[in-house]
């Protein structure tokens, strides 16, 4: 059974940092391209970041609004990915989902940026 | 960025009826490999999104064949035949042909 479990969300003030984690099991993680998506309070979905597999040199991509602030990474030995979020803004407030492409999604973790 | 326009924004249907949801993209979604990376997701109330249909017309794992997807280039349709109560939720189309990946705004399906 595939499992995807995010953790690390919470309430932070603007300008602060937060790191999300995503632990997975049940599929071949080492070759999987992994994604972070987010869903804003108005329910709009947005792709946030992607990290490719080792065979693709762990290449990363980001949506424009988070470039330079967010960093996606992975640890194949733990079948996990991470999202380091720095200089958070109120408009980053959303539910963050970790996913294997669109096939398997986690339950999501809430990130609230507010003073 | 590719803009995904979904219509209608909401639907209210009776059990057993059929419905269609439209998704139009601002650019062709045919990738250089000849495949079309247009997918449909369903987000049931309180749940995370689930893959329903991938690459226009292929059913996701465990998805009943009451769901079907058609279309090409820039014009796509999701059809649900014989709607059941469990089908309620928000349906999203998403394109993965062009970066960044972009989603439609969603269609909320309610049961009468």
Can you walk me through this structure?
The complex is a heterodimer of chains A (115) and B (112). Chain A is mostly beta strands. Chain A has strands at residues 3-7, 10-12, 18-25, 34-39, 45-51, 60-62, 70-75, 80-85, 94-100, 104-105, 109-113. In chain A, the strands form two sheets. In chain A, strands 2, 4, 5, 6, 9, 10 and 11 form a seven-stranded mixed beta sheet that branches. Chain A has a four-stranded antiparallel beta sheet with strand order 1-3-8-7, with no helix packed on it. In chain A, strand 4 and strand 5 form a beta hairpin. The N and C termini of chain A lie far apart (40 Å). The relative contact order of chain A is 0.32. Chain B has 112 residues and is mostly beta strands. Chain B is built from no helices and eleven strands. Chain B starts with a strand and ends with a strand. The chains are: A mainly beta (115), B mainly beta (112).
SSE string of chain B: EEEEEEEEEEE
Strand content of chain A is over 45%
Greatest contact between two chains? A-B, 16 and 20 residues
Oligomer: heterodimer
Distance N to C terminus of chain B: 36 Å
Mean pLDDT across the residues of chain B is 97
Percent range for β-strand residues of chain B: over 45%
Summarize the structure.
The complex is a heterodimer of chains A (115) and B (112). Chain A contains no helices and eleven strands.
Summary tags:
heterodimer, A: 115 residues, mainly beta, seven-stranded mixed beta sheet, four-stranded antiparallel beta sheet, 0% helix, B: 112 residues, 11 strands
Secondary structure: elements and pairs:
The complex is a heterodimer of chains A (115) and B (112).
Chain A: E1 3-7, E2 10-12, E3 18-25, E4 34-39, E5 45-51, E6 60-62, E7 70-75, E8 80-85, E9 94-100, E10 104-105, E11 109-113
Parallel strand pairs in A: 2-11
Antiparallel strand pairs in A: 1-3, 3-8, 4-5, 4-9, 5-6, 7-8, 9-10, 9-11
Chain B: E1 4-7, E2 10-13, E3 19-25, E4 38-43, E5 50-54, E6 58-59, E7 67-72, E8 75-80, E9 89-95, E10 102-103, E11 107-111
Parallel strand pairs in B: 2-11
Antiparallel strand pairs in B: 1-3, 3-8, 4-5, 4-9, 5-6, 7-8, 9-10, 9-11
């Amino acid at each position: 059974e595939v499992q995807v479990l995010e953790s690390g969300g919470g309430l932070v003030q603007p300008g602060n940092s937060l790191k999300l984690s995503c632990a997975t099991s049940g599929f071949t993680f080492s070759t999987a391209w992994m994604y972070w998506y987010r869903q804003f309070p108005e329910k709009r979905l947005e792709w946030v970041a992607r990290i490719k597999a080792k065979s693709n040199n762990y290449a990363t991509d980001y949506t424009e609004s988070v470039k330079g602030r967010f960093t996606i990474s992975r640890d194949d030995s733990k079948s996990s990915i991470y999202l380091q979020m720095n200089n958070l803004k109120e408009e980053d407030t959303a539910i963050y989902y970790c996913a294997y492409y669109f096939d398997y999604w986690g339950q999501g973790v809430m990130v609230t940026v507010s003073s | 960025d590719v803009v995904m326009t979904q219509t209608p924004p909401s639907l209210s249907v009776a059990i057993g009826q059929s419905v269609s949801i439209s998704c139009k993209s601002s650019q062709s979604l045919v990738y250089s490999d000849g495949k079309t990376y247009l997918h449909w997701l369903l987000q049931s109330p309180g749940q995370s999104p689930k893959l329903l249909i991938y690459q226009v017309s292929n059913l996701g794992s465990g998805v009943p064949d009451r769901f079907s997807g058609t279309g090409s280039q820039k014009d796509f349709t999701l059809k649900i035949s014989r709607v059941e109560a469990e089908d309620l939720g928000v349906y999203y189309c998403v394109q993965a042909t062009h970066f960044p990946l972009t989603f439609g705004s969603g269609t909320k399906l309610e049961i009468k």
